[in-house]
Amino acid sequence: MKRVAGLLSLAFVLVFSAACSDSGAGEVEGSGSGETIKIGVLASLTGALESYGKQTQRGFDLGLEYATDGSMEVNGKKIEVVYEDTETKPEVAVQKATKLLEEDGVDFLVGSSSSGDTLAVLPLAEEYEKIMIVEPAVADSITGSEFNKYLFRTARNSSQDAVAGAAAIAGEGVKIATFAPDYSFGWDGVKAFKDAAEDLGAEIVLEEYADPAATDFTANLQKIIESDPDYLFVVWAGANSPWNQIADMKLQDKGIKISTGAPDIPALSVMEPLVGMEGFSVYYHTLPDNEVNDWLVKEHTDRFDGEVPDLFTPGGMSAAISIVEALKQTEGETDADQLIEVMEGMSFETPKGTMTFREEDHQALQSLYAIKLEEQEGVPYPVPVLIRELSPEETEPPIMN
């Protein structure tokens, strides 16, 4: 608990993190009798990250249904889920997690939408000796410097993103410039990308940083043009994105290919200037080719007025599947030591294919996707089209704990 204050500054690490939607508590009813397995899910249910939470909650609920074949039970025990809103405030996340552990008596924690929230809660998982599934917070420190044996992460981490971004464009002799906001998020993202790209033989010809509050990036982009790279790799978050100005200054016409991580569907709608871009994606519903994803896409569109699952939906589903698969192996026992024994090295099927919890740091190794943004008839935003799937081996991040 003493680490909480020091972790509050990490609350900005929000970019690709997610959890739930409807407020309050929800119970997934089962038909059998016996004990109840309780799962507490922490998420930003209101505010700026509400859409991320909605995606993950839908995925989590669907994942429980899929993994239990619709019974909502494991070994005769029904599953109950309690959702709590962290408000994207680490101190609130700690309060809500404590409530889940002490008043609701949950057997598992899941979350959260924010890396700051998640880092604040991690010590409670250790204190109360409860398994915590981290989804979808991405900060490397979660499975790095702040790791404890009770946490397992189905979400990918920042280094996996960087490795995927490098794998999509880097190679021997490729010249790359990077562009990022001038604070820790940008510095860390560029460092991880640079390490991965240089390992593949690429040369980083310029690291350009901009004031995160800036609205005019002319000077920054002119420096990038003068460095004459083959690619510009952008690490960015926030409403004042540089995409329109990149298009206005015609970087792609000057032979500079743009690359970045494809965001969720609402954010894709502002990336029209980047049609033709090559980069990477955590998930888009047409990218994976497996039975679990087929089920997710069908059920999601059937139940939610034709909406397809978005960026963080499969993560919620994967978190739920991992819990159920572990409980099947322990025959419904929720003792943390038994769960840790079966979960370390455990592989399980997800909408993104096979995930495996690495024994050393409990990070789920998983596929990401090299993509190209293309226009498609009837779709009002640039669509990530698969170039190739990046295997869990290709995107494996360094062990940092």
TrEMBL record:
Keyword set for this entry? Signal
The record ties this protein, via Gene3D superfamilies, to:
3.40.50.2300
Q: Which residues form the signal peptide?
A: 1-25
**A Pfam match:** Peripla_BP_6
| The organism's place on the tree of life at top rank | Bacteria
For this protein, the parts annotated as crossing the membrane are: none
Record keyword Signal present: yes
Entry-linked InterPro entries: BCAA_transport (IPR051010), Leu-bd (IPR028081), Peripla_BP_I (IPR028082)
Record domain Leucine-binding protein: where: 36-374
Q: What protein family does this chain belong to?
A: Belongs to the leucine-binding protein family.
Q: What is this protein called?
A: Leucine-, isoleucine-, valine-, threonine-, and alanine-binding protein
Native species of this protein?
Answer: Bhargavaea cecembensis DSE10
Q: What is the lineage of its organism?
A: Bacteria, Bacillati, Bacillota, Bacilli, Bacillales
The gene that this protein is the product of is: braC
